[in-house]
User: Which sequence fits this backbone?
C-alpha cells in the first residue's frame, strides 16, 4: 500500500511550500529557528523520512538542535560513538543517514547539498527538541523566564 503524503501549505517569513503532513510541524519549526530546507519527504520507504538542504550550515544546525548537542567536546564524543556504531544518550543516531552531494558549476566553483534521512518514528521527538530550543531562545531574548 502506497503512503499518502497529504501535503500541507506551510509558511514562515518569505518561505512557503507544500510539506508532507508528518513533517509539516517540524519544517515550520526549523524555518522559525532559521534553518532553511530545500525539500522534504515523509515516505522514503516504509519507515524513513528525509530533509534536503542546499547549504552545509543548515544540516549541521538541524542535527545540533535535534540532538541537543552544542558543546564541542560532546559533539566529538557523539561523532566518535556514531562512527563506532554506538547510540549515545539512548538516541537512534545509528539509524540516521547523511549524504553530501557535490555540485560543480560552469564557472569552476563547487557547492554542496546535503540529505539527512531518519526514522519516521523520531519525528515527534525531533519536534519536541526543536520546540525546546525555540522556547529557550525566546527566554534568552526576553531576558530570562522571570522577565
Assistant:
Amino acid at each position: 500500500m502506497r503512503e499518502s503524503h497529504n501535503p500541507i501549505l506551510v509558511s514562515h517569513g518569505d518561505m512557503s511550500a507544500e510539506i508532507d503532513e508528518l513533517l509539516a510541524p517540524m519544517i515550520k519549526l526549523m524555518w522559525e529557528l532559521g534553518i532553511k530546507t530545500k525539500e522534504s519527504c515523509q515516505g522514503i520507504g516504509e519507515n524513513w523520512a528525509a530533509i534536503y538542504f542546499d547549504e552545509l550550515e543548515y544540516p549541521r544546525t538541524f542535527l545540533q538542535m535535534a540532538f541537543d548537542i552544542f558543546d564541542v567536546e560532546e559533539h566529538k564524543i557523539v561523532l566518535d560513538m556514531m562512527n563506532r556504531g554506538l547510540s549515545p544518550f539512548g538516541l537512534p543516531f545509528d539509524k540516521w543517514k547523511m549524504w553530501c552531494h557535490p555540485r560543480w558549476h560552469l564557472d569552476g566553483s563547487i557547492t554542496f547539498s546535503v540529505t539527512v534521512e531518519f526514522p519516521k518514528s523520531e519525528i515527534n521527538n525531533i519536534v519536541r527538541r526543536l520546540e525546546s530550543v525555540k522556547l529557550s531562545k525566546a527566554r534568552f531574548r526576553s531576558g530570562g523566564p522571570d522577565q
User: Anything to note?
Assistant: The chain is about 35% helix and 30% strand. The mean pLDDT is 82.
